[in-house]
């Protein structure tokens, strides 16, 4: 009997050519494939479009036994299975949407050794029956795709992913490969802990997307800014909106301007959602005005641009969302519009949420990092990549700040005043209080702590509050200030070691000149 469990070839390069028709591996693929084919476990961090699938598909085909791929998205599973079958690989999917008869068929094929790759949802995998069956078969590997779902720091936590920690215990000899495009160091550590990969190596690709030109600007006249961008760039793009109502309004107005536009949000009828998805996937030139509900599993290569009308909640989400542009490797653009009101609104959402204090602290840090990327006068790509633990070159050359450096001013003296006010108040007061001291406002709290007696009291009268806030945010962005936690909600700016030369006047500090965005009416975000 032909046994599809026995590999036709144990040579990864051979499988890559013959089965997938590729000339060679890309980036880290070869290292991962060799390691896993040799029986090793690993964590793979690669951006979307980086080629993660081959990292488990090739070893699964090179090793004896069946490869089990855990995937959270049914649509994604079906796509992958169809693609694998086209390459002549015996693949199948097992998930809760499968009619019982088909599920029985898949299990039968599995049991009779007729499958080489099984894509399975975590719920389905963790059923006793499934695990039992697998324990009786030779297994090539377990691949856990979208592995960030295991982490509750991640933005797509799926409780059923937690159960996957059983794999290491039940199948200690089967290689486990966790893959994700979410690269912030905390999530990576969490994945390693949850999936028992602390001893396993981490393969990390660069997350830079050199073909995406990123730019940010304060939101002033939202629709005008959007329209001129859309007209300039042309082609298919996605406009991310904070509310459902806004997606419909934006699509309407674009159509009014003669631009083909659709809207998409979680509140739409299932049929309307499918239709919007279909039209987008079919390759029509169209603008999709959507909430962040749109995009998971979108694999259209020729999206030319992504616009955010509001500040995203974290660098990770922003990166994922803009990463849907330019997957064909051709030039693409990402525009971020932001306002002070967005930032305030996001802070309120975090404070008002029912999350644990630790979770809120992390959300605040993420938001601060996002604000820093929006505010910086330096390379945005560099700041973004730093959120993923990646040290990039000083200038990427493909963000707006690199392309045309923004107007900056010498903030050295202002920074010294600020640092001195922070130090003299003991680094435990929030920005508002620090500004009260600098601007010489004798509030109750200022008087209570005797801060009106400080030599720094009133020395910052010449700079408006909004500008001071910009200075603080940019200094946080530069790592010259830390935002330490104080009390229940607050953060207190604290000086870092890096700021010492600035305080001593040994180093000059240039910051982006304030171009105060006009606050807008706040809306409630509903993805
Ligand atoms: P990810 O899962 O990381 O988002 P995919 O595995 O879907 O990325 O791969 C993205 C694209 O890159 C796919 O179209 C795939 O065919 C292509 N690709 C991946 N590896 C190679 C390679 N070694 N040679 C050529 N193309 C590749
Ligand atoms: Zn840059």
From TrEMBL:
Enzyme Commission identifier(s): 5.6.2.4
Catalytic activity: Couples ATP hydrolysis with the unwinding of duplex DNA by translocating in the 3'-5' direction
Protein name according to UniProt: DNA helicase RecQ
Residue span, Helicase C-terminal domain: 222-370
Cofactor: Zn(2+); Mg(2+)
Family: Belongs to the helicase family. RecQ subfamily.
Gene Ontology MF annotations: DNA helicase activity; hydrolase activity
Upper classification of the organism: Bacteria, Pseudomonadati, Pseudomonadota, Alphaproteobacteria, Acetobacterales
Domain Helicase ATP-binding, chain residue ranges per copy: 33-201
Entry superkingdom: Bacteria
Keywords: ATP-binding, DNA damage, DNA recombination, DNA repair, DNA-binding, Helicase, Hydrolase, Isomerase, Metal-binding, Nucleotide-binding, Zinc
């Amino acid at each position: 009997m032909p046994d599809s469990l026995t590999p036709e070839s144990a040579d990864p390069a051979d499988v890559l050519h013959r089965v997938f028709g590729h000339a060679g591996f890309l980036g880290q693929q070869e290292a991962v494939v060799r390691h896993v084919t040799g029986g090793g476990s690993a964590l793979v961090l690669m951006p979307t479009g980086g080629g993660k699938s081959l990292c488990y598909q090739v070893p699964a085909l090179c090793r004896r036994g069946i490869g089990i791929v855990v995937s959270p998205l049914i649509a994604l599973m079906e796509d992958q299975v169809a693609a694998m079958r086209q390459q002549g690989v015996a693949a199948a999917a097992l998930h809760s949407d499968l009619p019982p008869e088909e599920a029985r068929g898949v299990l039968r094929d599995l049991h009779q050794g007729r499958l080489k790759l099984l894509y399975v949802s975590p719920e389905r995998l963790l059923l006793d029956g499934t695990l039992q069956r697998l324990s009786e078969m030779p297994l090539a590997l377990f691949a856990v795709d979208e592995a960030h779902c295991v982490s509750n720091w991640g933005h797509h936590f799926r409780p059923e992913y937690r159960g996957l920690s059983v794999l290491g215990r039940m199948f200690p000899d089967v290689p486990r490969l966790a893959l994700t495009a979410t690269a912030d160091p905390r999530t990576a550590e969490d994945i390693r802990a949850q999936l028992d990969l602390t001893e396993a190596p981490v393969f990390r690709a660069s997350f830079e997307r050199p073909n995406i030109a990123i730019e940010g600007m304060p939101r002033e006249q939202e629709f005008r800014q959007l329209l001129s961008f859309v007209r300039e760039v042309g082609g298919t793009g996605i406009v991310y909106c904070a509310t459902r109502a806004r997606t419909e309004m934006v699509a309407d107005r674009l159509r009014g301007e003669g631009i083909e536009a659709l809207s998409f949000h979680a509140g739409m009828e299932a049929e309307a959602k499918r239709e919007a998805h279909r039209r987008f996937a079919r390759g029509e030139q169209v603008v999709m005005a959507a909430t962040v509900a749109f995009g998971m599993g979108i694999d259209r290569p020729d999206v030319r641009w992504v616009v955010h009308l509001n500040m995203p909640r974290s660098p990770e989400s922003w990166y994922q969302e803009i990463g849907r542009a330019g997957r064909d490797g051709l030039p693409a653009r990402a525009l971020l519009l932001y306002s002070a009101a967005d930032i305030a609104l996001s802070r309120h959402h975090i404070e008002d949420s029912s999350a644990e204090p630790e979770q809120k602290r992390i959300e605040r840090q993420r938001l601060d990092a996002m604000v820093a990327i929006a505010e910086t006068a330096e390379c945005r790509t560099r700041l973004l990549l730093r959120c993923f633990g990646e040290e990039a070159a000083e200038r990427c050359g493909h963000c707006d700040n690199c392309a045309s450096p923004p107007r900056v001013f010498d903030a050295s003296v202002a920074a010294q005043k600020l640092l001195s006010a922070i130090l003299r108040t003991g680094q435990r007061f929030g920005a508002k209080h620090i500004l009260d001291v600098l601007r010489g406002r004798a509030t109750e709290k200022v008087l209570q702590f005797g801060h009106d007696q400080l030599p720094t009291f009133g020395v910052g009268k010449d700079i408006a509050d909004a500008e001071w806030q910009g200075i603080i945010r940019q200094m946080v962005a530069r790592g010259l200030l830390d935002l330490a936690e104080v009390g229940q909600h607050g953060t207190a700016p604290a000086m870092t070691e890096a700021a010492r030369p600035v305080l001593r006047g040994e180093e000059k500090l240039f910051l982006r000149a304030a171009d105060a965005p006009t606050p807008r009416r706040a809306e409630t975000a509903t993805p």
